[in-house]
Structure formats: structure tokens, C-alpha cells
Design brief:
Layout lengths: L33 E3 L4 E3 L4 E10 L5 E6 L4 E6 L17 E5 L4 E2 L5 E5 L5 E4 L3 H17 L21 E2 L7 E2 L2 H26 L13
One zinc ion binds next to helix 2.
Length: 218
């Protein structure tokens, strides 16, 4: 279960999903994210950086330019064994990069950003950061108000429509519809992209970010 005090805000939570300026610096022990132990420092919680791709470049190594929640554009350098080639097909402008345990890094060319060494901490989510945050708000609202009572396409209410149960989208389990016609219409009208965002929000929401007992990976 997610931690109760941040449950409503999900991806808007600035400690779990910090903007670049709030990430720990790799040369410091940030007490928000690390405990200083007797031998070495260890994470005290989980966190994930989110940034939307605005550009990518680099010939032998992929470098992504991403814009974070606060609008700051930073570099993500892929220092994985394959230098980011596996991710290359998903690198589209407007898609969102998620980096678990990202830390502020100063690159040789004087830009700042995040250096990624493990392929398991980075994913590209095929929707914009805005879509992802909106999906997060939708999930948070649903968590507060309970099951939606209206068809996500025509708006028909569950009580008055004659249909006792709205059908839930089987992928995101978030959107609900009065029937197949409305479901198909909503999919064509944009739920396809929204659905992917919702599935990712649920992946994030299903984890307890406040307690560290081993690293998460994608
Ligand atoms: Zn409907
Ligand atoms: Zn869906």
C-alpha cells in the first residue's frame, strides 16, 4: 500500500517524484533520501525522476535532453553497457523518461543531469509528462471518491442508465463505460494514450515509496 500521507498526490508528490533541483547530489549525503550508516550511506526511501524528452543526441552514447516538472531542461546520459541503444526505438520527443534513484550529476561538457549506469532503473513511458500527471490526478480522485458512477464516454450515470454495472477498461481498470460502443468510441477518441499513462500511474501507485528494503527496478 502507498504511504497514507502522500496517497492523494501520487506523481505530484515532490519527495517521491522530485524535480531535478530536488534530487540528491551525487557528492552529498542528502538526509531526505539517505541514512548515513556505519560503513556507507544507504537509501532511506525510494524516489523516481520524471522528465519529458525534448531532444536526443549523441553518436556513440545516447544523451537525452528532458524537461522536468518545474520546466528545467537537463541531460540524461546513458552509460549502460549498450550506451542506450536498447531504449533508442522508444526515444520520442514528448515521451516521458522515468529514472529510479536519479542523482544530480555534472557532466564533462558542463551540463547538469543524471548519469544512468543500470538499464533496470530507466524506462520511457509513451506519453507526455502532462498526460502522466493528469492520469495521476484521475487515479487519486478515484481513490478518494470510489468507483466512478458515469460512463467515460457518454457520461450516462450508472443509476439511471438501466445498466447496473459500468464495464471497466480491462487494461487500466480505471476508465468505465456503459457498454462496448462507448468503450470503442473512447479508445478511438484518445483513451488509447491515456490508458498507457494510467497503467504506469498504477505501477507507481502500487509501490510503497516511503520505506526502503531493497531497490525497485522496472
Ligand atoms: Zn456510455
Ligand atoms: Zn484503459
Amino acid at each position: 500500500m502507498p504511504e497514507p500521507n502522500t496517497f492523494e498526490s501520487l506523481l505530484r508528490n515532490d519527495i517521491t517524484f522530485p524535480a531535478f533541483s530536488d534530487l540528491p547530489d551525487e557528492n552529498d549525503v542528502d538526509p531526505t533520501y539517505y541514512d548515513e550508516g556505519p560503513y556507507r550511506f544507504s537509501p532511506r526511501r525510494h524516489w523516481c525522476f520524471l522528465g519529458e524528452i525534448v531532444d536526443s543526441y549523441g553518436l556513440c552514447r545516447v544523451l537525452l535532453r528532458v524537461k522536468d516538472k518545474e520546466g528545467q531542461v537537463v541531460t540524461i546520459g546513458l552509460y549502460t553497457d549498450d550506451r542506450g541503444q536498447a531504449l533508442a526505438p522508444h526515444m520520442k520527443e514528448g515521451h516521458t523518461v522515468a529514472v529510479l534513484y536519479g542523482e544530480q550529476h555534472g557532466f564533462m561538457d558542463m551540463t547538469v543531469g543524471i548519469r544512468v549506469e543500470e538499464p533496470s532503473v530507466i524506462r520511457i513511458i509513451p506519453c507526455s509528462l502532462e498526460q502522466l500527471l493528469k492520469a495521476s490526478d484521475d487515479v487519486a480522485a478515484r481513490n478518494l471518491s470510489g468507483q466512478s458512477k458515469c460512463c467515460g464516454s457518454c457520461g450516462k450515470e450508472e443509476n439511471t442508465s438501466g445498466n447496473k454495472h459500468l464495464r471497466l477498461c480491462s487494461r487500466c481498470k480505471q476508465a468505465s463505460y456503459c457498454g462496448e460502443v462507448c468503450q470503442k468510441k473512447a479508445w478511438a477518441d484518445g483513451h488509447k494514450a491515456e490508458c498507457k499513462a494510467l497503467v504506469w500511474v498504477k505501477w507507481f501507485a502500487a509501490r510503497n515509496w516511503g520505506v526502503f528494503n531493497g531497490y525497485f527496478d522496472f
